[in-house]
Specification:
Layout lengths: L1 E2 L8 H8 L4 E7 L4 E5 L1 H7 L8 E2 H4 L2 H4 L2 H11 L7 E6 L2 E11 L5 E10 L1 H21 L4 H15 L5 E7 L5 E6 L5 H7 L2 E2 L5 H9 L3 E3 L12 H7 L3 E8 L5 E9 L7 H76 L22 E4 L5 E4 L1 H10 L4 E2 L7 H5 L2
Antiparallel strand pairs: 1-11, 2-3, 2-7, 3-4, 5-6, 6-7, 8-9, 8-13, 9-10, 11-12, 12-13, 14-15, 14-16
Helix pairs in contact: 1-11, 6-7, 6-11, 7-11
Amino acid sequence: MTPVSSDRSATAEDLRPLFGESSVVFASLAGPEHLVTTANPAFFAAIGARPGVPGARLADLAPELADQGLITRLDQVFRAADPDTGRYARVVLGEASFDFTYEPRRDAGGEVTGLHLIGVETTQVEHAQRLMAEHRALLEQIARQAPLPEVLDGMARCIENLAPQEVLVSVLLADPDGRHLRHGAAPSLPDFYNEAIDGIATGDGVGSCGTAAHRREPVIVTDIATDPFWADFRDLAGRAGLGACWSTPILARDGGLLGTFAMYHRAPRVPQDADFALARVFADTAALAIERHHIEQAKAAAEARARTAHDELAEAVRAERELRAEAEQRATAAAELATQMRAAAAAQSAVPHPERCQLGGAARCAEPAEIKVADSWGDAAWGCAAHVEEAIINVRSVFIASEALGGLAAYVNR
């Protein structure tokens, strides 16, 4: 296991290992047969021929050039005998691409005796253009708020295609508490492996990713079979056919843990500068995507809370209106009842005052009639204090109607 430091800013120097150095090839060709008289070592390396063999026909040294039209172009420039007819043509030699220029060679009398062939390798330029295009596409996905799994999956596949050697990419996302890592994307790893590591803890010695998340720094494991960090996951990695893994923490702008970005290899391997460069570039891209996702989640949660608060406020206003309407209805009903009671009391005021209690029922009551009671229907009667109290308790809407005794005061002071 080898930890390495990380700088989140990807400079031009960081990206240089991704593209390497462009090479220039040169060959001097003689006659219409295009015999190679002199050439630099880079030329022989590009066409896969043994250097230092002058006099051989270019078409014999590199037959694939004829299929790409280069020999035909050489013939045209040789016959034209005009240096202005030189032109550019892209040619692929092995796994490298070149832009070639053809210039006529002349003798002292001005006759064309051969050609100069100059080629500049463009493989690195094409690689850089492809990386920029892929990276721009990812940024466009992030800008249009594409789902995070879609962005991370596309990023993983992009890295796997751009890496100089076979690599399997995995992105794990940190839980809000930063104590566990969840599956984010790993399109080329087997499902059983992704399911097994989904939810692993962050901590020192917990594989490459758990350790990188805990330490907040890249962790390089060049041989999973022997590294102590993989003791608990060695059998799992063996079943998945994994031999090496280096993991880079994905950090937010404030230094908080967002997740990890891991590059797996089938066999034990030491990372190259190009691997570190890819990790730096895409760890930052992943951080941008994850932070944007968190911002959108927080925005959606805030909007949901605002909608809930609005709905609750609307419900409270509705309930308050209903209570106010109900209170107004009760007040109106109470006012109407009071009016009815006053009218009933006035109607009964002229009724003669009996001598004995009228509230005793069939058994009669011999007590003096002291208090007058009435109800809202206009019925009234005189009774003793005991029966008046019983009537008030048991008969709805009964009230004391004796103005002489002060209404309720007569009951209180009985």
